[in-house]
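Q: What would this chain look like folded?
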Amino acid sequence: MSGRSRAAALLAAVVSFSAVLVPSAHAAPNAPRTAVLDGSRLQETRVRLGHDPRLRRELRDLTTRADAWLDQGPWTVVDKPKPAPGGDVHDYLSQAPYWWPTTTPTAGNPWGCPYVQRDGQRNPEVDSGTDRQDAEKVFDSTYDLSLAWYYTGRRSYAEKAGQILRTWFLDPATRMNPDLDHAQFIPCKYDGRAIGIIDFSQSYTSVLDAQAILDTGAPGWSAKDRGAMDKWNADFLGWLKSSDFGEQEGAAANNHGTFYDMQLAALADVTGDTALARRTVLDARGRRIAPQIAADGSQPQELARTRSWHYSTFDLVAYTRLAVIGRHVGVDLWAYRGPDGQSLFKAVDYLLPAATGAATWPHPELEFHRYAASDVVHAAADAGDAAAKAALPELQAPAGGDLWALRPAAEQLDSIAG
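A: My prediction, written as structure tokens:
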């Protein structure tokens, strides 16, 4: 009996909850070719499930999340109450989260214009009437479902993930156009903004990794589906590279620029443009880390926000994912030291006193969540940061549990973004 077969047999004997099936029943010969997740590590973790109680506990948390998605969706851009400016129902539409009306809406002024900005204060109307919330559900659900299928072999997880991806991206009647021309519009002011690219760049790599996992042989996910998603990704990459919005977002000097680079590198890597992916990661050393991270590890552009803790951890989500993409293309971003000693390790270490509860965060923060830093601390520990590794036992787990061992790639763990 092979090592994997023995592990599978032990898993079947030991794990008592019904969601877990025998991993060897759907084992693929190759690790998933993921964009951010480490496919080989996923493969090794699946084997270890048979004899690691901690992993089995985390798998319960993961399958709980996946089970909750089975009765939701699929979602589509065509069912919003009003189409995006221009009238194409297939265009993605979202609204700027921190902009608010100044007057009561009337028949002649249905939005309550003009709008004014209140940084860090999320206007609740952005969560209804546009595609933002549904897109985030697509990202989160397909990620959870594909991982749950990979670790358990449960067919319903894979089939649901495939249905969600086909509905949002592929089916002619319901698909999204591969652009973000109308993201984060401001009523009566802008039909769309470059800053809206963050709607996708913050989480779209979850879709890329979900697809890679499904591509290993998931039931209900065909070669035709794979080819169509590959084309959508290539078209989206083309828009990011050539559009005015893409150029503007790439020039941003804060988390928006970091996330743009991360999304660009990930899409380039998975669509076969390794040169662009490598160049993007290499350029991030002098273009992002050196000017955006101070000698003490703080991130001045993020500290200037009313949500300084959130945005400091948020920017590091992009950096740590970009570092993983760099490893795929032969670049060690963790090893970079700027002219004043700037580094990703220093940026994570700057968060550790607040992340462990040893000290109060000394900067403005409207809603402090200690757990927001846990994934980026895990990422630094995995990369060899002794201080981050020592801090792991003191981290606060996010709601739903700490799933790092099952999906070792940083996520945005608190809910505010923009």
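The beta strands are 99-101, 115-117.
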